[in-house]
Specification:
Length: 382
Amino acid sequence: MLRIHFTGDDLAAIRMAARPDALWETILSFHRLRDRRGALVFGAWREEARAKLGGETRLLGALVPQRGYFPDFLTPQAGLDGLEPGLEAIRATPPARVHTELALLSAGRSAATPLPGWALDLAQGDPAPFGRLLSALRGYHRAAIEPFWSYLESRIEADRALRGRALLDGGAEELLASLPPMLRWRAPVLEADYPVDRDVHLDGRGLLLQPSFFCRATPVVLRDPDLPPVLVYPVTHADAPAAAAADGGASPLGRLVGHTRSAVLRAIGHGGTTSELARRAGVSLASASQHAGVLREAGLVVTMRQGSSVLHTLTPLGAALLHGGRTGPGGALAKEPEGPLREAGGPLRESGGHRGEGGSRRGGGGPPPPRLRYARGGPGRG
């Protein structure tokens, strides 16, 4: 059981992540790549990602096992700002912290499968193995995450809209009560089934809520209690992730209203400023503003001023049009789930993960980590 203990100050300091975290999605997707569950949502993505990947999986597999803990330094907060800022933060991790977290990782491995030799150099701050690690993360992200990034953003934006509405309707406690069903708000504690017994005391630091597309079944928290608290939880899956269409959107909706206007309508989704629409749709600010205006005049969009920005949201008519035009992989019309989540099924507890995804990623306290065990001549060692 995972128990996150809130004080009044913590409730006042709850924050929602503004966007997907590039490194959390990268690392969690690496778990999804190697398991067979959730085939309806992840099956086609697995096939496409595996076809593009090479040696990245072997190197990453040494630090991200299929079960159990993986190091906290692989998911720094800077991942919220994008892949490259996240990779820079990984590279800047103090060697003492790298050594401590690799020792925890080593403790979960059998004597027959020690950490590869290049990890010793990583723990000592050697730039060469760090360069190889960052290169592997960058290559994996570009092959497995980048083509689907717009879709991930749309699903996480939808989740943010739900949480924001709950916050407006009932405050922080209503927000916590609105989280997916594997999380249970029993004031002043947020509970979840978890691979290990773990209590997290926020102590007035608040909590960052990070929705994730590739998180599955169980939430994830960091192992180190001194790091800023973050709770990663799975979004609701309505369909499989689809890569951005090469033709700019040859969908029924695109054929009806035009590909660019269709992209802007999709970008509005559950709300966004004009600059956000431009970024999501891949158009200029002026173009996004123009198309949003046409959609507003057609009764598909409502625009409200929010400080120095304007916020665009869909009307019921716009939502109905967008729903009818949504496509899945290959251009086929996507079907909404009938009843519970389409990716339902299977136990809440993940049996192949990390920091709470079926292992002790975020385990409890305990004695100091043991010394590292290494095998010389591992992958990436010169």
